[in-house]
Amino acid sequence: MDSASAQVRVRNATMHGQMTERKLRRKVREMETMERGKLPMPASSLAELLDCPPEARTVLSNAVRSLDFKEGEIVFRQSGSCKGLYVIVSGRFLRKSECLDLEVTLGPASTGELVELAAVLGGRRHNYTLSAQTQGSTLFLPLEALDKALDDYPPMRMHLLQELAREVSRAYYACSANRVIGTRHKHPPAAVA
User: Fold this and answer.
1) Model-level pTM greater than 0.70?
2) Backbone dihedral region for residue 40 (phi beyond 0: left; psi -120 to 50: alpha; all else: beta)
3) What is the rounded distance in angstroms from the CA atom of residue 13 to the CA atom of residue 20?
4) Closest CA to 111 of 96, 132, 84
5) For the chain, which residues make up each domain, given as ranges?
6) What's the CA gap between 57 and 15, in Å, rounded?
7) Fold (CATH) for 3-172
């Protein structure tokens, strides 16, 4: 990640839900530590990230599982049926989209990121393809368990919608920053004599 996009992410995290970002980062650090130490991944980690009451947390904790991916392996394909929610725990993953016979790289999925909230909350079809660039792992929460938890605790849907809004906002700011930086580099200031 270049320094400009890192600055945008930090600024955006400050502007939008800093507490959620802190909580997410803390949990990811814990997960990474467990991954490095080969300790078992706690089933409750994803449920805690979703910030729900104990009853819904139990449903989610019982359903969540860790998935390992090898380099080059596809996690899910664009337009495929969404089977659940993923959180990147370790490794490098890349988003790609196909449109009008063109393949567009959308960028990496970062450690700790909830992946494909739009598909989970929307039409239940993936908007892009996610593949492992290196060996890595994710936490996976099946839709059935998530739907049950959302039925039992409706405010969690709003929490996920807020996270989706922050994701869209981060992408918008990253695109805007890249556009501004690109414009500055294309038209260097005139030399002063």
Assistant:
1) no
2) beta
3) 9
4) 132
5) 3-172
6) 28
7) Jelly Rolls (2.60.120)
